[in-house]
């Protein structure tokens, strides 16, 4: 049987996504074998900073009875001596039963899958793919409402934000209306919008979140990165107009949920945390059952 | 211009070769790019003739490339389709056309085009060749999903 890698959400069809999310729901209800991956080793190769993704993969592995091996910091590994990623992957394949990788270069996980003799899971490659984040985003939506038929707004940096791209791509498999709100210059790339429209997705662009706050069922907020702006003043000017506040949410549907891949900076007012709309910490927590389901898929 | 003059001029432009490959019906102005795609450089040993902007009844103007003592493989030939899908290939042996074929757009091209995405892993020192799927909208990088929609020749390695 061919080695099963998880590199891009685009490699999944809807049935596969639903099956994996169903499995994650069972895991959340504690219906799983705590020794399912006993004796298995996961190599955690993170060449970029991470808190949630890295720790939730390690937590997921531990909850299934397996263990994790970490490469430590980039400075501490052979990559610092100039070793290629291809060689690192070939070597690590001999030490572990699966590899989870985060790398600053786009396509790094696909390269890793070519050289690995064990399954590879992509935990984010530059501005490219981040499939486990997308799966947990979908899982969190599904906890509150069926995905089919919803209106979802993506707000923030939709040009460089990999989580927004992956999520939009996955949502095109469902019957969803997509609303986009982003600062000038950080809009959803035209090629991506065209590709989604081709798959039958309705995409509506808005200038102001207020125009659509009473319509949407899900508000997916992404971080607007300060480095995309020429100076702090223009950043704060833009960021403040994209800030989610309790006052804004006063006009929202009762069941609206607010999601954010985290870390957040100024995008969501901390006062929103206590509202019934806030789901971003729940979303982050969902990373564990979803990643447990992913690990079981590639390791069993 | 009389028919004889025309034939004489054409004779000068496209002299017959004994053995090798004649690539005809190249879109006007693309001959140098065809040569680039074939990897023919200043150090190549084969004699090479290029005629550009030759009048053509069907194409208006066309380019012709003649390569002596080298028969192109199907993989090499199909790469030409990326920039000149109407090109025809004639394999010449002892002054006779032994094979005549069109070019087919390949479904996958490797090591021919550089990914324009500076953040793509294929633009590093990794031991891989660039790889693109040929789709109706353009060339799709198999590593980073970047799509080249225009100026393919500008990205040839």
Give the H and E element order of chain B: HEHEEHEEEEEE
Tally of distinct domains of chain B? 2
> How many structurally independent domains of chain A?
2
CATH 4th-level superfamily of the largest domain in chain B? Aspartate carbamoyltransferase regulatory subunit, N-terminal domain
Structural class of the helices, strands and pairings of chain A? alpha/beta
CATH homologous superfamily of the largest domain in chain A - what is it?
A: Aspartate/ornithine carbamoyltransferase
Q: At the first level of CATH, what is the class of the largest domain in chain B?
A: Alpha Beta
Strand order of the largest sheet of chain B: 2-3-1-4-5
Return the CATH architecture of the largest domain in chain B.
2-Layer Sandwich
Largest sheet of chain B: 5 strands, antiparallel
Q: What is the assembly state of the chains in this entry?
A: heterodimer
User: Outline of chain B, from the CA principal axes?
Assistant: globular
The CATH architecture of the largest domain in chain A:
3-Layer(aba) Sandwich
Mean pLDDT of chain B: 86
Summarize this structure as a short list of keywords or feature phrases:
heterodimer, A: 300 residues, alpha/beta, Rossmann fold, 2 domains, 4-stranded parallel beta sheet, B: 157 residues, alpha+beta, Alpha-Beta Plaits, SH3 type barrels, 4-stranded antiparallel beta sheet, 3 helices, 16% helix, globular
What does this entry look like structurally?
The complex is a heterodimer of chains A (300) and B (157). Chain A is of the alpha/beta class and 300 residues long. Chain A has two domains: 9-129 and 287-299, 3-Layer(aba) Sandwich (Rossmann fold); 132-284, 3-Layer(aba) Sandwich (Rossmann fold). Helices cover 37% and strands 15% of the residues of chain A. Chain A is built from eleven helices and nine strands. In chain A, the strands form two sheets. A five-stranded parallel sheet of chain A has the order 7-6-5-8-9, with helices on one face. In chain A, helix 6 links the parallel strand 5 (151-155) and strand 6 (177-181). The radius of gyration of chain A is 19 Å and the shape is globular. The mean pLDDT of chain A is 93. The N and C termini of chain B lie far apart (42 Å). Chain B is of the alpha+beta class and 157 residues long. The model of chain B is unreliable at 1-8 (pLDDT under 50). Chain B has three helices and nine strands, in the order αβαββαββββββ. Chain B has two domains: 3-102, Aspartate carbamoyltransferase regulatory subunit, N-terminal domain (Alpha-Beta Plaits); 108-155, Aspartate carbamoyltransferase regulatory subunit, C-terminal domain (SH3 type barrels, Roll).
